[in-house]
Each structure stands twice: as structure tokens, then as C-alpha cells.
Task: inverse folding
């Protein structure tokens, strides 16, 4: 059996996380810290119904996202972090990050979104795989999970291609546009799970 890479016994405090973010493996694209001036580019595609149809996003305007970006800069307080997926000109074309960071439990929840101009290029899969590997192997998390609206087959496919296992269905888990909706729970763990069963 191949040996597992060396990793921290516990994730370090958020302020001590390395700033050399993982490579995406997509020519001309990279991960970088988010900036407040990313809010306009982010809102330009998140305001589209075809982008948020199968998500729980609820936005009032770019100012909502600017507030989130400020919070992401302080993960020790917000328990969340997000990175911009930057195009060749440096402008935001997507995001990927961790929510509900629980360092004592070595657990966090991944989230991502992509500008439709970059759909069907495998970018969501590359970003999800890069950040998940970084969190598990470099930072020392034991579990990265994801909750996916039961109608969001595209996002479920991204997670499955990244090695996440579907663990079960969370009934009436989150209100989406006024209605309680069901969400699938997915997870990747470290060490990698040998066996597992889908339930729900």
C-alpha cells in the first residue's frame, strides 16, 4: 500500500494558513485571494437565474457580495474562506472556498461557482479537486463535505468526479426561495475511506 503524504496532525489556525494556493491545472487560470472589487464581476453572473436555479443563493446586489468578501478575509471570525478563480487578465471568473470551518473537528464544507462563459471546460471539477486536496493533505483537515440541492445534478457530478462519496439525503434541510428543500450530503475524508454505503 502506498504511503500517505505527510500532513499536520491538526489544521493550523486560519491566520497561519499558507498563501501559496494550489495550482488549478487550467492554462491561464489561477487561484488568488478575493478582493472587494471582485464583487461586481461575481454579481454579474450570480444574478443570472440559470446560475443560481439549483442553489440557495439569495442576493440583494453587489453590496451583499462585498460584505461576504470582507468576511472571507477574516476566516478566524467568519469560519469561512473563499478564493477567486482568476482569468488571464486577473479578473474573477469563478470562486471556490470553504464554509462552516470547524478546526477542532477538522471539518469544513466546500462551495464553488463558475461564470457561465467558462462552463463545460471542467473548471469546477479542477477547482474543487485542487481546494479539497489542499485542505486535506496540506492543511490537515479530516473531512471536507458538501451539501447539494437534490435537483443540482451538475454539482453532484463535480463532487463525484473529485472523489466525494454521497452519504445520504438531508430532508427539508434548507429553505430555498421560500420552500424547504432536500439536499444530498457528500464528503471526502482523510485517510481516504476504504468502504462506504449510500443511504437516504
Result:
Amino acid at each position: 500500500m502506498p504511503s500517505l503524504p505527510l500532513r499536520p496532525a491538526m489544521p493550523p489556525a486560519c491566520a497561519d494558513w499558507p498563501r501559496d494556493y494550489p495550482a488549478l491545472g487550467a492554462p491561464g487560470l489561477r487561484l488568488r485571494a478575493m478582493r472587494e472589487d471582485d464583487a461586481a464581476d461575481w454579481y454579474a453572473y450570480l444574478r443570472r437565474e440559470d446560475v443560481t436555479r439549483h442553489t440557495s443563493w439569495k442576493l440583494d446586489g453587489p453590496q451583499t457580495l462585498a460584505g461576504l468578501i470582507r468576511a472571507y478575509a477574516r476566516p478566524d471570525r467568519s469560519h469561512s474562506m473563499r478564493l477567486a478563480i482568476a482569468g488571464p487578465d486577473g479578473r474573477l471568473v469563478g470562486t471556490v472556498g470553504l464554509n462552516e470551518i470547524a478546526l477542532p473537528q477538522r471539518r469544513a464544507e466546500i462551495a464553488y461557482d463558475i461564470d457561465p462563459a467558462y462552463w463545460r471546460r471542467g473548471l469546477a471539477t479542477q477547482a474543487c479537486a485542487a481546494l479539497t486536496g489542499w485542505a486535506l493533505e496540506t492543511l490537515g483537515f479530516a473531512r471536507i463535505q458538501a451539501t447539494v440541492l437534490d435537483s443540482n445534478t451538475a454539482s453532484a457530478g463535480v463532487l463525484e468526479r473529485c472523489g466525494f462519496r454521497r452519504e445520504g439525503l438531508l430532508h427539508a434541510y434548507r429553505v430555498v426561495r421560500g420552500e424547504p428543500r432536500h439536499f444530498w450530503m457528500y464528503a471526502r475524508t482523510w485517510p481516504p475511506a476504504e468502504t462506504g454505503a449510500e443511504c437516504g
Summary: The first strand starts at residue 30 and ends at 33. Helices lie at 39-46, 49-52, 62-72, 75-78, 123-139, 153-161.
